[in-house]
Design goal:
16% strand, five-stranded parallel β-sheet, Rossmann fold, alpha/beta, 14 strands, 3 domains, single chain
């Protein structure tokens, strides 16, 4: 049987760094083009955005902001079945993110010294929702719901318009359900630039959230010295761990559900023997032919891999080195294995937990770190939309007990004014 996905059997550890690489592209060209777009928007504002959209997308935008009439039109176009499905997803996502609400910390470190930490929501946040081949209305839910739960004062959203200058109805419906305040028909690097620098129509924000293509990712990176971003996030990816407990058709469906995202997506199977690899690859070949997006998925599979490691410890070590955005564990003792995973965006336990559950409706967030960033970044969660502020109040008695410590440490660093700020108060409470 012809191998659809490249296979590696017990590769030496020296080969692992190559096997965990993502699809590479000419970042130099992308960076150059992205920088030019950002500069145009920063200088030219709305008119620059219209020109860029006209040139790149072939769309003529008379107005950048979605009108109330367009929202009402979109509401009527969304089938009731989809409205009901979105309502269920909204409930689950809301419940999970409500459970993450931060309780203030208040403690007296020593008598008379009170230290407090409180969570304060960001005031204005900007959400980016990809359009292109698949307008991701689910991303609206994943970003707007935690923003609302956190208490953000204003939520704006940028997403590309279609060839007719309209935003996908499901995206607009989701924005209404989730309480997005303003929606703009702008995508790509130009949307990121607008939310960072502002234009006549689009306001600047405190933080930008959302996945996107390589241009969007590069733009977020380039504006991050001016505005906060959620995380580095590029093409989507999944890694499935499988042993004899896995159901091959399920595993294949998970690999393909990732591959159909786009040609840059990557699907990795890490399994215990070649029999499992054969069974899964046979299912991939069968299911691939049934997909409307099979050509795109096939391209993604060219950059995907099957890695067979007979040593169970090595399988876990390989997964942690790869640091997948999505990790599915279809094995014996999946919770035991998950306890040893140190780098993953979101983990799906057992045969009946498909990645698509997290993408849409289980309640967890699908905006996750890719390209190995799961080693150092979390996915979007409630904390992403708040800042933690600390407070302290020191009583005269607290200054008496803490003052000498402050003075000693300040003098040791040669900062006499720091020491004096404590000495004056110590003298006051002594007098």
């Amino acid at each position: 049987m012809e191998q659809i996905i490249k296979r590696y059997v017990n590769p030496a550890r020296s080969e692992w760094p190559v096997l965990v690489e993502r699809r590479l592209s000419d970042d130099g060209i992308i960076a150059e083009r992205t920088a030019a777009i950002i500069d145009k928007v920063r200088v030219g504002g709305d008119e620059a955005i219209r020109e860029i959209v006209r040139t790149i997308d072939g769309v003529e935008l008379n107005a950048l902001e979605v009108t109330e009439e367009e929202r009402r039109e979109a509401f009527a176009l969304v089938p009731q079945e989809l409205k009901d499905a979105i309502a269920k997803a909204v409930r689950n996502i809301t419940v999970f993110h409500m459970a993450q609400r931060f309780e203030p910390v208040e403690t007296e470190t020593v008598r008379g010294v009170l230290c407090v930490q409180r969570a304060v929501p960001m005031q204005r946040v900007g959400l980016y929702v990809p359009g292109g081949t698949a307008p991701l209305f689910s991303t609206v839910l994943m970003l707007a719901i935690p923003a609302k739960v956190a208490g953000c004062k204003e939520i704006i959203l940028c997403t590309p318009a279609n060839s007719g200058g309209k935003v996908a109805p499901a995206v607009l419906f989701a924005s209404m359900v989730c309480g997005v305040d303003r929606v703009f028909k702008v995508g790509g690097a130009q949307a990121i630039a607008a939310m960072a620098y502002s234009t006549e129509t689009i306001p600047s924000v405190d933080k930008i959230f959302g996945p996107g293509n390589r241009y969007v990712t590069k733009a977020k990176e380039m504006v991050s010295n001016r505005v906060a971003i959620d995380m580095p996030a590029g093409p989507s990816e999944v890694l499935v761990m499988a042993d004899e407990m896995a159901i091959p058709s399920f595993v294949a469906s998970d690999l393909l559900s990732q591959a159909e995202h786009g040609v840059d997506s990557q699907a990795i199977l890490v399994c215990s023997n070649e029999d499992i690899a054969d069974a899964v690859c046979a299912e991939v070949a069968t299911q691939l032919q049934q997909l409307p997006r099979k050509d795109m998925a096939a391209k993604a599979l060219e950059n995907s891999r099957v890695v067979i490691l007979t040593n169970p410890d090595e399988r876990i070590e390989f997964v942690n080195m790869y640091a997948p955005e999505h990790l599915i564990i279809s094995t014996k003792d999946p919770w035991g294995i998950s306890a040893r995973i140190t780098a993953a965006g979101s983990v799906f336990i057992g045969n009946y937990s498909p990645e698509s559950a997290g993408d849409y409706a289980s309640g967890t967030n699908h905006t996750l770190p890719t390209s190995g960033w799961a080693r150092s970044h979390s996915g979007v969660n409630l904390d992403s939309f708040v800042r933690k502020i600390t407070y302290q109040e020191i009583t005269p008695g607290g200054m008496r007990s803490l003052g000498d410590t402050i003075v000693t440490m300040a003098k040791a660093e040669g900062l006499d004014a720091h020491a004096n700020a404590a000495l004056l108060r110590m003298k006051s409470v002594t007098d």
